[in-house]
Amino acid sequence: CGCRSCNSPCPSPFQLAALERQVFDFLGYQWAPILANFLHIIIVILGLFGTIQYRPRYIVVYAIWTAVWVTWNIFIICFYLEVGGLSKDSELLTFNISRHQSWWSENGPGCVRKEASMSDLKGLDNHSYISVIGCALEYRYIEVMHSSFQILIALVGFVYACYVVSVFTEEEDSFDFIGGFDPFPLYHVNEKPTNLLFKQTYL
């Protein structure tokens, strides 16, 4: 799919990247990123629809959204790197509803999850202490890489959107709304020279 005069590819990598991010945020019960990802998926579909159906306005909406999406991912990077007073251990991304953390905090590469029963302590018989050891990479760096990849994809999508809009604009400028792309309009009538008309009248 793509614009009418070029064979530009569909932005399927954008959708796959957004869906992959959504899956892992769902697994970690990160409600704020879940909502942001859901909105991002809708805007990506809107941009794809605008590309296929020749709707430049939809593509412009997608291009504007990429700036918002980049800003959001920069915030996520700052959150996990604890920049500007932010703390990765806070409940900000879960709207203070739960104390869940990133899914990667217990399921990262090389991580071993151990549960220690605390039934011997009064009032904690239904709880357990979870320790994670042996992680090859700390989960916050995995989240940072995810967000960095999303920023890269968003920048590529922005360039793609600007290119498609420019192509559509050039096509609209070259289109004759009366005669189409035909250099001779439909209402044009080929008039014969007057000398030929005189000859036909004489005959």
Structural description of this entry:
The chain has helices at 12-27, 31-52, 56-80, 104-107, 139-174, 194-202, and strands at residues 112-117, 128-133. It is mainly α and 203 residues long. Strands 1-2 form a two-stranded antiparallel sheet. The longest helix is centred in the C-terminal third of the chain and has 36 residues, at 139-174.
Rg (CA only): 29 Å
The SSE string, one letter per element, is HHHHEEHH
Q: Could you give the order of strands across the largest sheet? A: 1-2
What proportion strand? 5-15%
What is the number of helices? 6
Structural classification: mainly alpha
Percent helix: 55-70%
Largest sheet: 2 strands, antiparallel
**Mean pLDDT rating:** 79
The number of distinct β-strands equals 2
Low-confidence stretches: 1-11, 178-194, 196-203
Shape designation: elongated
Terminal-residue CA separation = 59 Å
Brief account:
One of its GO terms (biological process) is regulation of sodium ion transport. This protein is mainly α and 203 residues long. The chain contains 6 helices and 2 strands; from the N terminus they run H-H-H-H-E-E-H-H.
Layout of secondary structure:
Layout lengths: L11 H16 L3 H22 L3 H25 L23 H4 L4 E6 L10 E6 L5 H36 L19 H9 L1
Family: Belongs to the NKAIN family.
Keywords: Cell membrane, Membrane, Transmembrane, Transmembrane helix
InterPro entries: Na/K-Atpase_Interacting
